[in-house]
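Usage

Read records sequentially. Each one opens with the input sequence:
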Amino acid sequence: MNQQIMQNLKRFRTGLIIGGVIGFLSGNLVGMGIGAMVGFFLNRWLYKILLGDSSPQALFFKATFAVMGKVAKADGRVTEQEIQFARDVMVRMRLDDEKKRQAMEYFSEGKEADFDLSKVLKPLSLLIQRRSAVKIMFLEIQLQAAMSDGEISPDELKVIQQVCTYLKMSQEEMNALLSRMQAQQSFHGSAGMPNSKSAIEDAYKVLGVSDDVTDSVLKKSYRRLMSQHHPDKLVAKGLPPEMMQLAKEKTQEIQSAYDIVKTSRKQS
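and closes with the structure output:
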C-alpha cells in the first residue's frame, strides 16, 4: 500500500508541486497544503482522461505491436520477414495464445492505412516522458522491425522519425541509436568470427564509441548501456514484464561486444 502511494506521489508530482506553490503564494502553509492536494488530484484526473484505465505496461504492449505494423506497412507491403519478426518477438516474450492473438490484432491495426500513430504514442509519451531508457528500448524494437527485411526504406525511416517526434527524441538521438542498431545487426552476422576486424569494428559501434577512446571512456559507455537495458529497472519504469527477455538479450549483446573489445585491446 505504501509503495502504491509513493508511486502515485511520484507520478503526479508536477501537479503536487505546482498546486503547493500556488497555494503558498496565495496564503500560508495551510494554503500550500490545500493547493498541493488540489494540484495532485487535478493531475491524476487529467491522466485518467488521457490514458483511460490502461496501465503503463498495457499501453507499451499495444504501442509496440501497433507501431510495428505501421512500420512494416510503411513502404506499401508487409514482407514475410517483417511478419516473422513480429512472431519471433512474441515467442521471445513467451506470450500465451491469448496474448499472441492480442499482439497480432494490434499489429494488424497498425497496418491499416488510416491508423493514427498519435492514438498510441501520445498517451505512451505522457507516461514515459522522463524515462529515457524505456524510450530507447521502444525505439530499438521498432528499428529492429524496420531492419528485419535487410534494410530500412525511406518510408520506414519517416515513420521512425514520427515516432521520435511523439516521444520527444531528437534527430541526433535517433541517428546515434540507428547507428548502434545497424552495428548490432552486422555484429550478429559476424558472431562466428569474434576476432575478425569487422567484428571488432562493429563491437565498438554497438558500444557507441570509436576505437580510439580510452579504457575509462569505454567502460563508462559500457556501464551506461548496461544500466539503460537492465531488465528489472526497465520493468520498474513501465516495460511490460513479458519484454524482460528482450531486455536481457540486449544486455547480453552489450556484454559480448564489450568482451570482444577488451580482448582485442589486450592483444594489441
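Summary fields computed downstream for this record:
- Confidence is low (pLDDT under 50) at residues 1-12, 19-25, 38-53.
- DSSP finds 14 helices and no strands in the chain.
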